[in-house]
From TrEMBL:
Residues 248-364 form the SSD domain. It comes from Hymenobacter koreensis. The keyword Transmembrane helix applies. It is a multi-pass membrane protein. It comes from the Bacteria. The chain crosses the membrane at residues 213-232, 239-259, 265-290, 311-333, 339-365, 395-414, 598-617, 624-648, 654-674, 694-716, 722-751. PROSITE patterns: SSD (PS50156). It is found in: Cell membrane. Coiled coil: none annotated. This is MMPL family transporter. PANTHER family: MEMBRANE PROTEIN MJ1562-RELATED, MEMBRANE PROTEIN YDFJ. Keywords: Cell membrane, Membrane, Transmembrane, Transmembrane helix.
């Protein structure tokens, strides 16, 4: 079979595969599932899933904060009536289970055989100053109202909507649109409306993902096109590499679609990653091809030479790059796991297409017209650069040593820290809304504590209630909860209701006999919507729930440590046992694995690179030669994070593993070409010089593409995506400098074995 026939057959087979991939693309969906960020396989997750099945998820709610006009308070009759109209509208909406509002909150009073719910806010009497003052006094003295439904400054209220469990984006967006439309109709100015909760974040994240994915891919393609044109000065030098990348990206996204994983905050980066990472192999192959054809070699022989000299190195670099992504699959966080898996597979697809699709196209397309020696135009530049690098090797080594020491010191200041919604910029409207609830109300960070009475007791036994109350007091005074509810709240409310609703009666019964007298009303009141999620129907298990401002995972870890010490010394495990749980706790637990996952990923990469070096050179001395220029940029960027105060969190922890896997590519290409040159040149220095000229152009071009491609992520509104672009870009920038300066110095210093071509020929003769 002729080369042209084989090329046509290759294109036909790839076209069939592409058609199959279209079915995977049709299955793609954008996804933001808050639960995906829980650590899979964790015992605390298994416990929380059972806990939420009994009591509901702690994030199935929407907070609607409404501010009053500047010259009025929440006791203004017109404002309160509009809040009530909105409350009634919300109660009628699908997927709304319960609404807790300032206008429906009531003080239960038991008189005779009936229970009367007396509203805290009398809408029909707000025009009367005396009645308004009476309502205000009662509201601000009643526990659980101020900071929960009413702002401390009396200039804002919160309406809380309990939604159906795990409400997905389409119905969630419908609900949010209906709520916003009604608020506008009622005359609430946009700047006076604040929304918080999972549904808000879910809607915003997915919508922005769709926009940003399109923007980043467009910017990356334009940037890569410009750099490819400057490099090859021909249409085929632009179109052919982009065709390879497009094919690999389509294949990767098809795999995502077939798996049902969906496009989330992490996998949205796959097309950008492929646009900048997947093009490197094509650049190396085409650069060598241009050199050969520029010297007059025919197309097919030029391809054979180019493939023979670059295919092995590209295969090794594709292996190390994909491995850098594959190590992310060890993460317990599903979006990171999926991102690592599908991006790693896409890198391998790009390598496969580079050496199947690209050669087939080069054979079938007209031979590029070039002047003789076009591929050697950079030789003089690299000869001068290498001369100056070797002449000032002491300066280069001294600067590298100083950078290393300073970066290690600065990197030691990097702290592990995360907050809810920390991927949104501080001035983001969603972030500002959440901050509104933290500053004016109880906050948005949920707190959950499971209550398990022991010895046949129920959560309504007096000794259990007293220990639960002690925990509540600690949480509000020492831990920082601004709102708390538990079975204690139910019992206190019943006691107050039986004593005419007087605030001073809001306390636990003084004796078992008094508690027994409350039992009948307790069973009735505990079925109220605001209380029924605090204990199981049989009272054998309870829930202590609350909200607080989010101080960050580091502070919370200290608070949890203090709480555990308090529980161990102030509760009797024979009476009551407790267990921290909740969505916020699970998100925080991710931080415990960040350092481990990062070190695991880099360690696997280092081991793989070490094995490659040993296989190529059979010399341990070459291992530090390859590792030092690639680990130094990682340490330097860690120092940059320490100096700039960038915390280690879920989105930034993946940077080092990815960056090392990408940065080592050029080194792999360099040393694989060096291995070939050692068999052709009489000295190691001549082999390094020849390799420097051959690989230098491709190293600079691919590095510019990588740095430029990742720089497009700087335009993201997500902090995590921004830092991925910034820090990986810096790592690769430092990496190419180390590649062109440190690497040749280290090779000449460490590699002493005289493997030279002429000596071999002499021995063979």
């Amino acid at each position: 079979m002729s080369v042209r026939s084989l090329s046509y057959l290759t294109l036909l087979l790839l076209a069939v595969v592409g058609a199959v991939c279209v079915t995977g693309l049709m299955r793609l969906r954008f996804n933001y599932n808050f639960n995906d960020f829980y650590p899979t396989g964790d015992p605390d997750l298994a416990f929380y899933e059972k806990y939420s099945a009994r009591f509901g998820n702690d994030n199935d709610y929407v907070l609607i904060g409404l501010e009053t006009p500047a010259d009025r308070t929440l006791f203004d009759a017109g404002f309160a009536r509009r809040v009530d109209q909105f409350t009634q509208f919300a109660q009628r909406q699908p997927n709304v289970v319960h609404v807790l509002s300032p206008t429906t909150a009531a003080n239960p009073v038991v008189e005779g055989l009936g229970v009367f719910n007396i509203p805290y806010l009398h809408l029909d009497r707000l025009t009367d100053p005396a009645s308004r003052a009476q309502d205000s006094s009662l509201i601000f003295r009643t526990p659980g109202l101020v900071g929960n439904l009413f702002a401390r400054d009396a200039r804002a209220v919160t309406v809380l909507l309990q939604t159906t469990p795990d409400l997905k984006k389409p119905p969630g967006d419908t609900l949010m649109t209906a709520l916003r439309t009604e608020l506008t109709r009622l005359g609430f100015p946009e700047e006076h409306v604040h929304l918080g909760g999972k549904l808000v974040a879910q809607s915003v994240f997915v919508d922005r993902l769709q926009v940003e994915m399109a923007v980043f891919v467009s910017l990356s393609v334009l940037l890569v096109m410009g750099l490819l044109w400057l490099t090859f000065r021909s249409w085929w030098g632009v179109v052919l590499p982009l065709t390879v990348v497009a094919g690999a990206t389509v294949g990767g996204l098809a795999l995502v679609g077939w798996s049902g994983a969906g496009i989330d905050l992490m996998t949205a980066l796959l097309p950008v990653m492929m646009c900048v990472v997947g093009i490197a192999d094509s650049v190396h192959l085409l650069t060598r091809y241009v050199t050969e054809t520029g010297e007059g070699t025919a197309t097919v022989p030029a391809l054979r030479i180019s493939m023979r000299e670059s295919m092995f190195g590209s295969g090794l670099s594709a292996l190390t790059t994909s491995l850098g992504f594959f190590t992310l699959t060890a993460s317990h966080i599903r979006p990171i796991h999926n991102f690592g898996l599908y991006t790693g597979l896409s890198v391998l697809l790009a390598y496969g297409l580079t050496y199947t699709l690209l050669p087939a196209l080069l054979v079938l397309l007209p031979r590029p017209q070039q002047r003789y020696g076009a591929g050697r135009s950079w030789d003089a530049f690299f000869n001068r650069l290498l001369f100056h690098v070797l002449k000032r090797r002491r300066w280069v080594l001294s600067i590298a040593a100083l950078l290393l020491v300073g970066s290690i010191a600065a990197a030691s200041q990097v702290r592990i820290e995360s907050r809810l919604l920390d991927d949104l910029a501080q001035d983001d409207p969603v972030q500002l809304d959440f901050r509104f609830f933290e500053e004016r109300f109880a906050g948005v960070r949920p707190f959950e504590l499971n209550l398990q009475p022991q010895g046949g007791r129920s959560v309504y036994d007096l000794d259990v209630l007293r220990q639960t109350e002690a925990i509540e007091n600690y949480l509000t005074r020492q831990y920082g909860l601004h709102f708390v509810a538990s079975p204690v709240s139910v019992v206190k409310s019943v006691r107050k209701a039986l004593n005419g609703g007087a605030l001073e009666e809001y306390r636990l019964p003084a004796s078992e006999a008094e508690l027994k007298r409350l039992q009948k009303q307790l069973r009735r009141v505990s079925k109220r919507p605001e209380f029924r999620a605090l204990a199981t129907p049989d009272g054998q298990e309870g829930r202590l729930t609350g909200r607080m401002p989010d101080p960050g995972s580091t502070v919370v870890a200290g608070l949890n440590g203090g709480l555990k010490r308090f529980l161990s010394t102030n509760t009797d495990p024979q009476v009551l046992q407790t267990r921290l749980t909740g969505s916020a706790l699970l998100i925080d637990k991710n931080n415990q694995n960040l350092t481990r996952d990062m070190l695991l990923g880099i360690s696997v990469d280092v081991i793989m690179v070490t094995l490659i070096v040993l296989a190529l050179f059979r010399s341990l001395r070459m291992v530090p030669v390859v590792l030092i220029p690639n680990l130094l940029p990682i340490v330097v960027v860690g120092g940059v994070m320490g100096v700039c105060g960038v915390p280690m969190k879920v989105s930034t922890s993946i940077i080092f593993t990815i960056a090392f896997g990408i940065a080592v590519d050029d080194t792999i290409h360099f040393i694989s070409k060096l291995r070939l040159m050692l068999g052709k040149e009489p000295t190691v220095k001549r082999a390094v010089s020849h390799t420097y000229r051959l690989a230098g152009k491709a190293v600079i071009v691919t590095s510019l593409i990588l740095v430029g491609g990742f720089s497009t992520l700087l335009f993201s509104s997500f902090d995590g995506t921004f830092y991925v672009g910034l820090l990986i870009g810096l790592t690769l920038l430092f990496g190419v400098v180390a590649e062109l300066t440190l690497l040749p110095i280290l090779i000449l210093a460490f590699y002493k074995k005289p493997r030279v071509g002429k000596a071999r020929q002499a021995r063979a003769a």
